[in-house]
Amino acid sequence: MKSSEIRQKFLEFFESHGHVIVPSSALVPGNDPTLLFTNAGMVQFKDVFLGQDKRAYVRAASAQRCVRAGGKHNDLENVGYTARHHTFFEMLGNFSFGDYFKRNAILFAWEFLVDTLGIPKDRLWATVYAEDDEAADIWLNEVGIMPARLVRIGTSDNFWQMGDTGPCGPCSEIFYDHGPEVAGGPPGSKDAEGDRYIEIWNLVFMQYNRDASGQLHPLPKPSVDTGMGLERIAAVMQQVHSNYEIDLFRDLIAAAARVTNTQELSSNSLKVIADHIRACAFLVTDGVIPGNEGRGYVLRRIIRRAIRHGYRLGQKQPFFHLLVNDLAHVMGQAYPELMAAQEHVTAVLRQEEERFAETLDNGMEVLEAVLRQEKQMLGGELVFRLYDTFGFPVDLTADIARERGVAIDQAGFEAAMAQQRERARASGKFSMQAGLEYTGLPTEFHGYETLQQDAQILALYKQG
Ligand code: ATP
Ligand code: MG
Ligand code: MG
Ligand code: MG
C-alpha cells in the first residue's frame, strides 16, 4: 500500500467516524511565536484545547507536515542513524475536543490498524502510563490485547504536557514489532532504544490542568490528541524495516543518487539528503529563508548539512536545489503549496548552495587535515574557526567529526566565541574581523544568538 493511500485511508476512516478533515497548517506556527516549527498535529489546535478558540466541530483529523529539527523536539542528530527519524515527516492525527475520550481513542486506533490496514494483532504492543488503570482496562478487556504485550511505563515518556502549566495527561503508545532480525527490546525494557519495536502511534489523553503550584485538576471536558507517523506506518505496510525504504523515499533516494552522481545506493548520505530536501523545501515553501538567526539559521544548518553530504559523495557542484523538482513529483499532489512554490524554493536553495560552495572546499581541507591527526577531540579554536571563517555551523562540524568517532570541545568553542564577542565589542560592535567576509554572511554580529543555539545542539549531541 502506497503512502498516499495510507494517508487517504486514515482520513476517510476518521471522516466516517464523524471527524472533520482539516488541512495541514504551515510549518511556521501561526499561533505560537515561542514554537520554532510545527512539530505535531495538535499545534494548530492548541487554542482549542486551551478553551481559547472554538470550532464548529468537536472531532477532527489531519495529515500534518511537521519538522523536528530544533527546540524541544530535535531529531536532526538522529537522521542517518535510526530507521525511524526524519527532520520532516507527516503526522496523521485524530482529535477530540471534549467529545470522546480514552475508550473511543483506543478502539478507533485498533480498528484502523487491525481491520482497515490488516496488521496482524500479534505484531502490536501497547504502553500505558503506569497509573492509568482506565486505559489498561480498555486495552485488556475491550481490545483484548495479550497482557504480555501491554507495558506500563511510569516515566515522562507516557505523560504528556503542553508546558509547565496547562493541559496534560497520560499517553498510550502503540508499537510495531519488526521481528527478531532487528536488534532491540520491547518498550520499557532496557534495550528499548533499538529499532525492533518501533513506536507508530501516540494517543494522548488530556485529562488534567496543571496549575502554577504543580497541582493537577481534572478537566471538565477531557480531550484526545493522537499522532501517527505516516512514514513509520508506511514502512509497516510495505513490509520494510526502515522508513527510508518506503515508496516515497525510494524515489527521493534515487533522485539524490542521480544528482550527486553516486552508484552507492545504500549510502547513508543519500538518506540524509533525501530527508533534508523535504525539510528544506517545505520550510522555504512556508516562508522561511536561510539566515543567521532563529528559524532561518535552523534552515541554513540543514541545507549545509545536506550539501556536505553531497560533497562526501564527491559532488562538488550545486545539486541540492535540483531535487525540488523530484520532490514535487513525489509530494506535490498532496501538497499543492509545494507545487506552487517550486521555482521560488529552487532559487532559494540554489543561492544558498552557491554561497556555501565558496567556503566549503577550503573548510573541508582544514578539517580533514586536523582529523588525520586528531582521533579524540576537535579543539574549540578550530571549531570556532570553521564556524567563523568557513561558515560551518557547529553541528555540521560535530556531524563530520562524529562519523570518525571524534568529539568536539564545546567549552573550548564557547570560550573562543566569547573572546570573539569581546573583541567585537572592544572594536565597535559591527566591525568584525575580515574572516566573516568569506562566509558571504552579513557583517552584523549575530554570534550571540547562534551561540546559544549551537550550545543547545551540542548539548543534545553529547547526550547521544
Ligand atoms: P520516538 O520516541 O520514536 O522519537 P516520539 O515519542 O518522540 O517518537 P511523538 O512525539 O509521540 O514521537 O509523535 C507521535 C508520532 O509521530 C510517533 O509515534 C511517530 O510515529 C511519529 N514521529 C515522531 N517523531 C518522528 C520523526 N522524527 N520522524 C518520523 N516520525 C516521527
Ligand atoms: Mg522523539
Ligand atoms: Mg517515543
Ligand atoms: Mg511518543
Automatic annotation (TrEMBL):
<comment type="similarity">
    <text>Belongs to the class-II aminoacyl-tRNA synthetase family.</text>
</comment>
<keyword id="KW-0067">ATP-binding</keyword>
<keyword id="KW-0479">Metal-binding</keyword>
<dbReference type="GO" id="GO:0045892">
    <property type="term" value="P:negative regulation of DNA-templated transcription"/>
</dbReference>
<protein>
    <recommendedName>
        <fullName>Alanine--tRNA ligase</fullName>
        <ecNumber>6.1.1.7</ecNumber>
    </recommendedName>
</protein>
<dbReference type="GO" id="GO:0006419">
    <property type="term" value="P:alanyl-tRNA aminoacylation"/>
</dbReference>
<dbReference type="GO" id="GO:0002161">
    <property type="term" value="F:aminoacyl-tRNA deacylase activity"/>
</dbReference>
<keyword id="KW-0694">RNA-binding</keyword>
<dbReference type="GO" id="GO:0005524">
    <property type="term" value="F:ATP binding"/>
</dbReference>
<feature type="domain" description="Alanyl-transfer RNA synthetases family profile">
    <location>
        <begin position="1"/>
        <end position="464"/>
    </location>
</feature>
<keyword id="KW-0030">Aminoacyl-tRNA synthetase</keyword>
<dbReference type="GO" id="GO:0004813">
    <property type="term" value="F:alanine-tRNA ligase activity"/>
</dbReference>
<keyword id="KW-0963">Cytoplasm</keyword>
<keyword id="KW-0436">Ligase</keyword>
<keyword id="KW-0547">Nucleotide-binding</keyword>
<keyword id="KW-0175">Coiled coil</keyword>
<keyword id="KW-0820">tRNA-binding</keyword>
<comment type="function">
    <text>Catalyzes the attachment of alanine to tRNA(Ala) in a two-step reaction: alanine is first activated by ATP to form Ala-AMP and then transferred to the acceptor end of tRNA(Ala). Also edits incorrectly charged Ser-tRNA(Ala) and Gly-tRNA(Ala) via its editing domain.</text>
</comment>
<keyword id="KW-0648">Protein biosynthesis</keyword>
<dbReference type="GO" id="GO:0005829">
    <property type="term" value="C:cytosol"/>
</dbReference>
<keyword id="KW-0862">Zinc</keyword>
<dbReference type="GO" id="GO:0008270">
    <property type="term" value="F:zinc ion binding"/>
</dbReference>
<dbReference type="GO" id="GO:0000049">
    <property type="term" value="F:tRNA binding"/>
</dbReference>
